[in-house]
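Q: Hand in one record:
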Amino acid sequence: MLLRDMLNRLATQLCYINISPKETIMEEQVNDQFFTDLIVSGKYWLINEFPGVLLVMILFFILFKVVRFSFRKLKRNLINRADKKESVDTGEAVKRINTLTGISGAFVRVLLWIVFLMMLLQNMGINIGPILASVGIISLAVGFGAQELVRDYITGFFMILENQIRVGDVAILNGTGGFVERIELRTTSLRDFAGIVHVFQNGKINTLSNMTKEWSAMVFDIGVAYKEDVEKVMDIMKQVGDELSEDPDFKELILPPVEVFGLDEFADSALVIKARIRTKPIQQWTVGREYRKRLKKAFDQNNIEIPFPHRTVYWGEKINSLKVESKNRIHGELKQTN
């Protein structure tokens, strides 16, 4: 109230400003009483009102610190609890915990900022009733005019609630794949292998493919020559997979057993044998590269041919064309012989 009275007095004094039409210079005519009242009002506000404003600022500063510490503590407790349960994949649990605590923390911080600003304005003597009413009307107008924005928030909420993707997953959104860096109520951010960040509005995500939820897999279509024994090739593929599963560097990454399904296709120049290795999330590419490297060595040791397109080039050598005789000439020579 004091702040408003001070502003009213200042406006009253400004009404007495005379403007000289000749010099066009504004001269303020204020008396000593105005400055005296202004100084007295300022001292009164500093002594009686400012401590309350300062107290509100300190309390909310402490509250923000407490909220941040609480969410960090909650995150650690949830991760430790998930780590103790053998039936729960710790990596998957950490992704979900990071996503939920990040969004919940952002929502709580926004709510605290709104309450802080309302209390600060009220302590400064500003009536917040009309402000709240105006905010309600503006929110209603925004709700009708920004339906796309509302759709983004609703879609993002259900994406998080249904645990479709989490921070740390590798996903394909609308045909674009990448590492999920951020999930918010309005947008989702992916970073692809080249380092490019793709930002998607949640309401415009038509297709979503999560490549690393719970477990991942690498599928192999191995082509060998038609002359090779399919059973022998399958045994070699199985043996290489078993050796990889027993390797200390890859044992924890693979979910056994390695699956060799058999002859899958008669291709133009190869017999295609399909296999699959299931792995921990995001480890399928590491395991797949190592498996291909070892399989190539095993094929070389067992003289298994991997067909590939090749071209024959004739360099500086004359090629004789085929001579084609007409049908009538052939018939004539046959008659002479007879």
Q: What stands out?
A: The longest helix spans residues 50-84. The beta strands are 18-19, 26-27, 170-173, 176-183, 187-191, 197-201, 208-210, 216-224, 254-266, 271-279. The longest strand covers residues 254-266.
